[in-house]
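FIELD: query
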Amino acid sequence: MKKNQDIQSANQKKRIKTLLRDSVAVTGTGVLYQGLHDNALLIEAPLCDFCRFCLDHPKTASLCRYACKRATMESLSSGDAHYQRCWAGLLFTTIAIAPDNACCGGISLGGFRGMDEQQDIQDTVQQAIANISERERTQFMSRLSSIKEVSPSALRGLGHFLLEASISSGMNSERFFRRQNEKYRQQRSIAEAFEDMRKTDVLPADILQDTHDLITFLYTRDRDSVMRFVSTYLARLLMASNWDLTKLKAHARLLLAALSSREILQGADWPKVLGRESRRFAHVERATSTEDCCYQLSRVILAHLDGEDESPESSLSTVQRIRNWITLHYSEPVTLEDIARGIGASPSTVVHRVKAETGKTTGELLRDIRITEAKRLLASTQTPLSSIADMCGFCDQSHLTRTFKTCVNLTPGQFRRLMNFGKDDI
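FIELD: result
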């Protein structure tokens, strides 16, 4: 186990170093990687003399590392490059590095001084190092001339490049960062709505009336009005639920039920509407935080506004939709009822269609999809078996090993060694 973890860590470090080298080759500016949960520090020259000196100096090294870690968390939260000033007032940009959507650290590029900031930087540094010896102060101040100047647009361009490079290299997932950014922008809009309500001394939330107003907006198809109202609506839902996730989901259920009732009263097909409601609420129900719940609910609202009848999957066969749903959720505990609710069909329909078209039970189909993903991870990564078991929805490593042996006639370890034989081995 320890050996596999060491190999995985070495491979990840190698990929990060490659990304650092590629970034320097394009930008001509030094970059560094700072581990989030450890003191790993990888530097790719050329850093300016001042930054290099600060990172090595015992009085300032911890300040530099803290700035990088803080910027990493901000980047992960916003799903975008984060722009910040360090203890010395220098500008830098950071992007989080999150293989498999789990942040391990961040890559920072900088530091720079803004236009006409040379004197301001000198004053900031002098004040910050006032308590060290004169000789050390001289060493800091003499290196300020190595700091490059940067324009705001150029700094933004460097940040965007870093993010795109991390996605192109496979270190980061575009989908994950896009969702993070959407959530971040939504939370900012909700915060602004709270501030507006505070200024106007708004009355306690009347959720039934707010839901009626939202549905009225939705049926006008006025997207601008809806977008303006959604942030306020979500803010009032949060207030009414006192930021309790269970209560927030209950309010979401009320909205979906109201939308379905409106459609049915206007002549829509009852089973179709209820199936769509069930599928949409399944996304909300899986939310693990109030932020994620608000995000999922806003997606449901906009899908209704845009007249989306689920997705392109509506033209797929039942078994294709079952496969697609399982492919998205195989890492989670999955029941027959979950699958049926997810595709808008009855459990008996799921069982009969899977058996008729594949000759397998639903459990066997789920098992095969999990084994397929486990094979991919075993062949292409050095991820520990315990982590693969968790990522693929198995109870533990022993469960993975037993199931894998039954299906493949090899243990996971034997399969990995077989897939990683080199030419010399053969």
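FIELD: remark
The beta strands are 31-35, 41-44, 82-85, 91-97, 105-113, 148-149.
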